[in-house]
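I am still getting used to backbone structure tokens and would like to learn alongside you. Would you supply a protein for us yourself, any chain you care to pick? Start from the sequence, derive the backbone structure tokens from it, and show both lines together. Go ahead whenever you are ready, and we will take it from there.
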Amino acid sequence: MSDNQFGPPQPGFGPPPAPGAPIPPQGAPAAPPQPGYGYPQQGAPQPGYGYPQQQPQQPWGGAAVPPQGYPAGVPGYPPGYPAPPRKSRKGLWITLSIVSVLILGGVGVVGYFAYDTVSKTGKYKLNDLPGTFHDMDSSENATQAQALAAGIKQDASTSGGAPDGAVAAIYTSDELEIRVGAYYGKISDPKAQMDAEFKDMPGSGPRKSMDPGPLGGKMDCATGKDDEGLSANFCIWADNSALMLVMERSSDEVDLGKIAADARELRQATEVVK
């Protein structure tokens, strides 16, 4: 016969005595009931009005069972659920910092270039062109060159320039004629001034950008023809202080690379700091 011959223990009576255990005398007060195997105790006060809720014990010796119901939750979320972790704004602040640095850096770069342009504007002037160039003399055409210089200064004033002075020379040989005209002053936009000069050269071919040399600035060259049908290729260089046109006329077309090299040489011979 089984030891537990009375079936499952009834609530409030505790477990049956083990075999061989002394039987308490009749009429003696019973020992306090022990909790059964997984059965709740009887007689324990139930939580009601004014009684704090008890933590029920986990059967079989486990951890405490969380209290039933939901504690007061965070507004906008179901009771008993913790609020989601607060979003970090560290990335936002880093992004804003980077943007601010870029903006301030851009302003600094623009300010630097503006200062650099202003500091260079009108810094140089042109001395008189040399009397001879590549064994070609200019003295025979001195009067014509003076008239050319006066016309250049006037044209520069009407096209938006602010010339302080102008120079010109005409070098000739049996095969070639080199006409040089230039002015100096304050040129805030060298490219715009060059564009105006090219518009005054009708019939010229497409512009080709060339190396202006160690003094900087900009130089463009193009092919052209004069009224007599001769080749009249030319180059124009300009910076914030001066603009010069070099045209070479010949029965044979003159290479633009040669004209650009002559323009750089003449520039170095005439452009100096004021």
Summary: The chain has four helices and ten strands. The mean pLDDT is 75. Residues 93-122 form one domain.
